[in-house]
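May I ask you to review the protein record following this short note?
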Amino acid sequence: MFRLLAVSAIAAMLMSAAVPARPATPQTLTVFAAASLHNAFADMGAAFEAAHPGVSVKLNFDGSQILETQIFNGAPADVFASADERSMDKARTAGLVDTPTDFARNSLVMISQFDLNIRSPRDLTRAGLKLAICAEAVPCGRYTRIALQKMSADPNFWPNYGDQVLHNVATQEQNVEGVVQKVTVGDADAGFVYATDAIVKGGVKLVSVPVPDEDQEIATYPIAAVKGSANAALAQSFVEFVLSSDGQNVFHARGFRSTK
């Protein structure tokens, strides 16, 4: 509740600061963003629109690898925000984006429905348990597999821990929102998602268990303007807005970690 109130306060503050000098020519800014940024970028888009009269921010959310492929295939995007540096580096190497800048970090947690009595990562090895994770090509899927490898080498677990957990995988999703959905509706007993996704969904109470920092690779989010954008100046303004102190406050209110 505190985070939601903080987000509302920040959005109100940013919107109140927007004083148009004169009617602006309508423009649409298309932002491709990782699915785990859904709530934060919805706030960001609304605040940016308030500060830039006449601008409409169109948000497209999906797995970072899917978004990079869409941009590569010519999808009209002005800004790309990825949940990992690998997808962004691929876009940069292909000459699709300008120099990226990291703007937020995130960490993995295990989620389950409250009444299933799954309270520890050790519980994920139970026989018959249905686990949802992201596919390996998806950033959250890669981070999950890295975490399982690290936990298998952690003396608090055991050498074949990761293999036992992967044996219980019932579904592999193309973005982190898919994992949350599977757990929320009961198609999966548990799943690995980002800390920012571990919230109450549709009245369903979720249990969230953090993965120790030493047993995971902390997710880093880079952002960049897309080369060839018809709204190049506006795209750069959005990137700068995300990196500004006001923009960073939006991410902090939504539970993201700072890059500093």
About this structure: Strands lie at 27-34, 55-62, 79-81, 101-106, 108-113, 131-134, 169-173, 190-194, 206-210, 219-225. The longest strand covers residues 27-34.
